[in-house]
Amino acid sequence: MTNVDWDAEAASFDEEPDHGLRDPEVRRAWAGRLRRWLPGRAADVLDLGCGTGSLSLLASERGHRVTGVDLSPAMVTLARGKLAGRDAVFLVGDAAAPPVGEQRFDAVLVRHVLWALPDPGRALRHWCGLLRPGGRLVLVEGVWGSVEPVGIPAERLTGLLAPIAGRVSVERLSDDPMLWGGQVTDERYAVIAQVPTSGQERGEAAAAGQ
């Protein structure tokens, strides 16, 4: 999976129900989740591993200012077309170390990326550093396949977040077929982590993770 040529996959990427969100019911399901996961007010959202920009578009439709990052130039080109005329910028770059300079965000959104990174703990620390105080990290992940499962279990992900985040909640997604265009039997979930608003809270979070 990690050796996929995503430029070659870009043209057909949106054919998957949860990628292209072409089915109105699937699109509505993801829009409802993002409405809960992202800030209620207009905010700066960083969409890492944005693909063709389907989730970026949903965030933009809620009034958020979106920066998308993907390693595939072909994916970025499609995302730029999908959000043409909107308050959105798309950059070619590594999701683990996005090329955003000193810019900071109110939310970092990452779907199906963390599990494929060689050092997920390091990526999480970097992403938390890209958030403004009180910002939130929204991670959609899972474990797929029965013969040779790939992915990252929710328990491992919450364990990695414990020393660096404040409040962490897990939302199970496997039992909502509307998100996937049909029933699924594997583990799919979202983790929403709140970055502490003060140095004291950061210290308390770190202590709790020891």
From TrEMBL:
Q: Does the keyword S-adenosyl-L-methionine apply?
A: yes
User: Which InterPro entries does the UniProt record give?
Assistant: Methyltransf_11, SAM-dependent_MTases_sf
SUPFAM superfamilies according to UniProt: S-adenosyl-L-methionine-dependent methyltransferases
**Record keywords:** Methyltransferase, S-adenosyl-L-methionine, Transferase
Query: What biological-process terms (Gene Ontology) are attached?
Result: methylation
Entry superkingdom: Bacteria
Q: Which Pfam families does the annotation name? A: Methyltransf_11 (PF08241)
> Which CDD domains does the UniProt record give?
AdoMet_MTases
User: In what residue span(s) does the Methyltransferase type domain sit?
Assistant: 46-139
- Give any GO molecular function from the UniProt entry: S-adenosylmethionine-dependent methyltransferase activity
- Give the signal sequence positions: none
This chain belongs to the protein called SAM-dependent methyltransferase
- Source organism per entry reads Streptomyces variegatus
